[in-house]
């Protein structure tokens, strides 16, 4: 059951990960970023997602240290994710990238480390590095991001450890049912990035009607849909009132019919790059 902001899903290796967190994609390193992460921690968020390419790991690290002190919590209560970028994919280069991220974040370990994109010819060596880090106890869980079924199948042919997470673009216009089914079959937890489709769904009439019924916002309806589909979600916001609003999704439940209506909005439409055609 997902009844509280700090409720968790158990990954296939036994690690518990919050169903809900905050993402910091495209949030510039600086006071706004630090305040946003501190707001999130203050209001009960325990999962924070960043990446090397976001160029804000140092700010996230400062916010974590300040948030721990101000909210009187322990580091162990937080679940921190970062990702290795495409230019660092490779065995030794991924190990080095991990150390760089840790140093910038000011942490001794990460809870989750992901391969950011499935760059052909590179992601298998990077995965071998993640396995090394995991077996050495340097990271609590390892996974991938933006992997389609063929990428996952190729990775798992040679992997000693299967991914614990696959973080993908996921929203009502891109429901990715095939990937979700594949991940469920293989005990890989699906996680959503861009769950609100960068705001493009906020004036949708169907979603607005459902939101009005529950006296909620369209964003809250979408995030609730994520959770009821068994998908971990990490919406981004830098505004304290939005950070609070986004997390207030545990006091209502969508009906089966409403879930199906939202599913039917799917158009296989992406706001981000196509993982099968990576050119960066």
TrEMBL record:
Species annotation: Oceanobacillus chungangensis
UniProt keyword Oxidoreductase present: yes
Matches recorded under InterPro entries: AKR, AKR5G, Aldo/ket_reductase_CS, NAD(P)_OxRdtase_dom_sf, NADP_OxRdtase_dom
Residue numbers annotated as active site: 54
Keyword Oxidoreductase recorded: yes
Keyword terms: Oxidoreductase
Molecular function per GO: oxidoreductase activity
Name listed for the protein in its UniProt record: Aldo/keto reductase
Pfam families reported for this sequence: Aldo_ket_red (PF00248)
Domain NADP-dependent oxidoreductase as annotated: residue spans: 31-266
Residue positions binding substrate: 116
Lineage: Bacteria, Bacillati, Bacillota, Bacilli, Bacillales
Family: Belongs to the aldo/keto reductase family.
